[in-house]
TrEMBL record:
Bias kind Polar residues: ranges: 842-853
Name of this chain's protein: Glucuronosyltransferase
Family assignment from sequence similarity: Belongs to the UDP-glycosyltransferase family.
Feature: compositional bias, Low complexity: 931-942, 1054-1065
Organism name: Caenorhabditis bovis
Keyword Cell membrane: no
């Protein structure tokens, strides 16, 4: 069989594309040609393959810009003869009973064309070796699908020259809601009676069933020609990356579609064409002009004579209107009496529709013609004849710009419709409004085609867009009949009253209304981590928030903010929600009854549930607020499948009420350098402040804090997803953040670094930049930032990572070894540089000498001098700003003789340090020093028999008025010792041990400080644990990640400006 290859253009290529566009209808050819030319004109190397199915449309609408055009002629004339006579289109009533019979000639033509196409094996082999990136094929027949599979093209796009193809939707997983969406062959619109809905469904079954029979027969053909190993068309269809439809969402009936379905209707519309002189003179003959055209398939010359006569009689009634009639033959003597008709075998329809002198058009409602008149803003009379033309006419009628005339009622209704078109201003106005909408869409059809094609070429095949689960559901599952059946046998009374819901009711809400149900777990974080109801959020309230909640001092916005920030249900809330609260009915283990029990962390959850329910109801933001009857344990016992455990059970949480703890009168935005500002989440959301300071870049150190709305360009925004906990790694982000800030500096911009409260995470990152930028040690950089923003307080973990970063900068020769904040071991000399190590007191374990090794006579009891600070809390004596807030042990030379706060002597380690520490006069073996802040405390012990003078200063420790306890010969305030962990410890062993024979050890565990202020020595000790104990002040810290512990009521938190010293011998 002959075929012709024409090379049209040699241009820069982007993707190698194969386009299979068989020729069987002019409207389809036009759609193919426009897509092909659009791709070719945008630097894609496109090969257009045109198998000839219908000889009459062989040369119509050829692509003009394809790089290669291949035309495959037919072997026989069967298809041509079958379509020579289309007169039956005029006289046959389009009903579901005769659809299959009417489509039979068309189906025979397609099968014959497919067989001829696939007989060109040499051509197919050449195409197979071309290695195409993407292929386009229309699933109007299955022949092209078989070719795609044979050529091995995995990235292919389906195109439909109609609004959609009903017969492929079930196989790609796209729903077709026939109750309100007209099928392609439907005779009705979107508003149907029950009988019309039945006809709509039946038409879909008949029409789609007929096409699927054709597909099965063509599948047999392509397997016989190309190989039995080829996939079936049902397997090939779901593999399509995209489906491009000749639909427009503004014009078409609304219907549910897949993400892979892209509407490009209107791509074939030519916005402006120059009207030839001949047609310009025709339009000038009379004030108004009307076009009469019934397309290419249904020719006006084959219209029944009586219908033509009826139209002619109406035309003679409007002598001031020129009628341009597309008529395919020369026998026009029957219209000699009408002097206002201009017959033509071809008319420039697009150019005429774009002329303001054209009053309207009489058309057959083919989709291409409908889209053209919609874009041009012209009213029309539509006379649908067959196929999708009935649906198209109903689609246009909903916009109020057309009149519909049934073909069997032309004699009676055509005159009325023409009068309405010429005399009704409403139709013209509606048509123009529709045109303006179509021509001002956010994305043009050309843009959608080009961007999606490039996307598929680079990332296809797009398996993530294939709804595999939807394709595998049966009728009962899709229609939810199985669920309705189960629901019918479930208990009716699931909600006991307006305030309580039982376990069965909650399970029903989870299954039936998960998107409108918010479940709040009011238990502790540990219990929530172990197990909780699916989709629930943890309402972990700190002591401060509970007190505010019970005293009705907590703003509604605080509560609602937590819901919207922690729950995906609330973020997508389009209607009022049902809220279910639950706790544990049982009394929590370890509860100790104390005074002011309503404020402690172990009270029964019933009070929280009741208070929270009342407060949420008062907001009137929810449909219902209910408490789960029986609590979580009862629900879990009945519905374990609806419960789950948190994925990261050892992770220290951020409090549910965390955003509410931001300090109202905080530091605000702090200028650190001319281009770096430090602040909190609240600051980052203040658009006016950011604009006033000319801040155009933001670094956000959080997982959930929202992005500032005024930062539009993504290159000016950086998110570092870390929480403020003792397990997060911030160190790996230092280099990337440094590069980001350097680019900000070089571009002359300004950047805000923020976390939730601007206390721990963001200052840590800021300090890391200052260290490298200004070549400072961690201590120096910390003091530099602390001086500008006194509220900063990085946690132990982050301070340790700053020391690691300092070592790295020394290795990179950014810092000198003598700048180190702790002894630095030179890898070449294996010698420790700088000062001897100093060990911090804020540790989990400390070893002290026994009474036998100390001088009991010189021991003195030291009681704190209690005062009331500005916050109304009892605290210890204020100390000068230069004083370190540290709990330490100095040597004898310190001569601290009393508990009063006095300036510390130079011998006390790190005068500028604010990190709680203790140091020993006795030497510590350098070989046994820990190499990181997480080293164990067992490496450190005192080896001196001399008595040491102790100075304890720690502002964050919880103190007590209770008598002191002896622990290892040193009198220590009882609040500094957790008696549960106070026990004897074995003497350390190892080669580095230097303890004298009569030396014994005791161990006590103290409560760590809430924030380490500085790490100066290499002897920093931190016990890595998922849940370190925290002080009351820690649980009230805005960035605290700890659970609140149950401390005695008479223990009070010491303010950050207080200190305590106890002198001992």
């Amino acid at each position: 069989m002959p075929f012709f290859v024409i090379f049209l253009i040699d241009s820069v290529i982007s993707s190698n594309i194969l386009f299979i566009g068989p020729s069987f209808a002019p409207s389809h050819n036009n759609f193919y040609a426009k897509i092909a030319d659009t791709l070719s004109q945008n630097e894609h190397n496109l090969t257009f393959l045109r198998p000839i199915y219908d000889e009459r449309s062989r040369d119509k609408f050829m692509p003009k810009f394809a790089q290669k055009l291949i035309v495959i002629d037919k072997n026989g004339e069967d298809g041509k003869r079958n379509l020579d006579d289309s007169s039956h289109i005029w006289t046959t009533e389009f009903k579901m009973e005769n659809v299959k019979q009417n489509m039979k000639p068309f189906m025979e033509m397609l099968k014959a064309g497919c067989d001829s196409f696939l007989s060109n094996m040499n051509l197919l082999e050449d195409l197979r070796n071309s290695k195409f990136d993407v292929a386009f094929v229309e699933p109007f027949d299955a022949c092209g699908l078989g070719v795609i599979d044979y050529l091995g093209i995995s990235k292919f796009i389906l195109i439909t020259s109609t609004t959609h193809f009903d017969h492929i939707l079930p196989f790609i997983g796209e729903p077709l809601e026939l109750s309100y969406v007209p099928s392609v062959g439907s005779l009705h619109g979107d508003k149907m009676t029950i009988w019309q809905r039945y006809e709509n469904w039946k038409m879909d079954q008949v029409f789609s069933g007929t096409i699927r029979e054709l597909f099965d027969e063509e599948q047999t053909i392509y397997r016989e020609r190309l190989g039995q190993h080829l996939k079936s068309w049902k397997e090939i269809l779901p593999k399509a990356s995209l489906v491009l439809t000749n639909s427009n969402p503004i014009l078409d009936f609304p219907r549910p579609i897949l993400h892979k379905t892209i509407a490009i209707g209107g791509i074939s519309y030519k916005k402006s064409e120059i009207l030839e002189k001949e047609w310009n003179s025709v339009l000038q003959l009379r004030p108004r002009t009307i076009i009469i055209s019934f397309g290419s398939m249904a020719q006006s010359s084959q219209m029944p004579k009586e219908w033509r006569k009826s139209i002619l009689d109406v035309i003679t009634l409007f002598p001031d209107v020129t009628f341009i009639w597309k008529y395919e033959k020369d026998d026009v003597e029957w219209a000699n009496l009408a002097g206002n008709i201009r017959f033509a075998k071809w008319i420039p329809q697009s150019a005429l529709l774009g002329d303001r002198r054209l009053a309207g058009i009489v058309s057959h409602a083919g989709l291409s013609s409908v889209i053209e008149l919609a874009y041009s803003g012209k009213p029309a009379i539509l006379i649908p004849l067959f196929g999708d033309q009935f649906r198209n006419s109903k689609m246009m009628a909903r916009h109020g710009s057309v009149e519909i005339v049934e073909k069997f009622r032309i004699a009676s209704d055509f005159k009325i419709a023409l009068e309405s078109l010429l005399r009704s201003d409403g139709m013209l106005q509606n048509a123009r409004n529709l045109s303006r909408k179509l021509q001002n869409q956010p994305f043009t059809p050309n843009e959608l085609l080009l961007k999606w094609t490039s996307f598929v070429a680079e990332f296809g095949p797009l398996d993530s867009l294939d709804p595999k689960s939807a394709r595998n559901l049966n009728f009962l599952q899709k229609s939810f009949l199985d669920v309705y059946g189960i629901h019918g046998v479930m208990p009716d009374m699931t909600i006991l009253d307006n305030a309580t819901i039982n376990a069965c009711g909650l399970s029903s809400l989870l299954r039936q209304s998960p998107k409108t149900t918010l479940i709040v777990d009011c238990r502790g974080f540990t219990e929530f981590n172990e197990s909780h109801v699916r989709t629930s959020v943890n309402a972990f309230f700190s002591k401060l928030i509970r007190r505010r909640l019970f005293e009705n001092k907590l703003d509604d916005s605080c509560l609602l903010q937590q819901l919207t920030s922690h729950s995906a249900v609330c973020r997508e809330m389009s209607e009022k929600l049902d809220v279910v609260l639950y706790g544990d009915e049982e009394k929590p283990r370890g509860t100790v009854k104390r005074r002011n029990a309503s404020y402690n962390g172990c009270e029964n959850s019933s009070k929280i549930l009741k208070t929270l329910r009342d407060r949420l109801e008062e907001t009137q933001k929810f449909r219902a607020v209910m408490v789960l009857e029986g609590g979580y344990k009862k629900f879990e016992s009945q519905y374990p499948q609806l419960c789950e455990a948190s994925p990261g059970m050892n992770r220290i949480p951020q409090s549910f009420s965390q955003p509410c703890l931001s300090i109202p009168n905080g530091d605000g935005i702090t200028k650190i350098t001319p281009f770096i500002y430090l602040g909190s989440q609240i600051d980052s959301l203040d658009e006016n402040m950011l604009k006033a300071l000319d801040i155009t870049s933001v670094i956000n150190l959080s997982v959930t804090c929202p992005k500032s709305v005024c930062i539009k360009d993504e290159k000016n925004f950086m998110r570092i997803p870390v929480n403020d906990s003792y397990q997060e790694k911030l160190y790996p982000y230092f280099p990337e953040a440094y590069e980001f800030l350097e680019s900000v500096r070089m571009e002359g911009k300004k950047c805000l670094i923020h976390c939730l409260a601007g206390i721990s995470r963001s200052p840590t990152l800021c300090i890391s930049y200052i260290m490298k930028h200004k070549k400072m040690s961690s201590d120096e950089a910390y003091r530099y930032v602390k001086n500008l923003r006194p509220s900063i307080s990085p946690n132990f973990n982050f301070m340790g990572q700053l020391l690691e970063y300092e070592n790295q900068l020394i290795k990179e020769n950014v810092l000198r070894p003598e700048q180190a904040s702790r002894p630095y071991r030179n890898e070449k000399t294996s010698q420790d540089l700088l000062c001897p190590p100093k060990v911090p007191k804020s540790v989990s374990s400390v070893f002290t000498p026994t009474p036998e090794a100390s001088n009991e006579e010189s021991m003195s009891d030291a009681e704190p001098s209690a005062t009331v600070n500005e916050n109304g809390k009892r605290s210890l004596t204020e100390m000068p700003p230069c004083r370190p807030k540290a709990l330490g042990i100095s040597n004898r030379k310190a001569q601290l003789s009393s508990a009063a706060s006095v300036p510390i002597t130079p011998d006390v380690p790190s005068p500028s340090s604010e990190f709680s520490r203790l140091s020993f006069e006795a030497g510590i073996d350098p070989e046994n020093q820990p190499s990181s802040p997480s080293s164990t405390a067992s490496s450190y012990y005192s080896s001196s028999e001399d008595s040491s003078q102790l100075a304890y200063t720690n502002p964050c420790f919880v103190m007590s008025r209770a008598p002191t306890k002896e622990c290892g010969g040193i009198r220590i305030p009882s609040a500094l010792v957790n008696p549960v962990f106070c026990d004897e410890a074995n003497e350390p062993s190892g080669s580095g041990s230097r303890a004298p024979p009569n030396f014994r050890f005791k161990k006590f565990v103290s409560r760590p400080t809430s924030r380490p202020e500085c790490l100066r020595s290499s002897g920093v000790i931190l016990l890595q644990h998922s849940q370190l104990p925290a002080t009351t002040e820690e649980t009230e810290s805005p960035e605290s990640g700890f659970n609140e512990s149950c401390v005695d009521d008479d223990r009070k938190s010491i303010s950050s400006t207080s200190s305590l010293e106890i002198s001992c011998k």
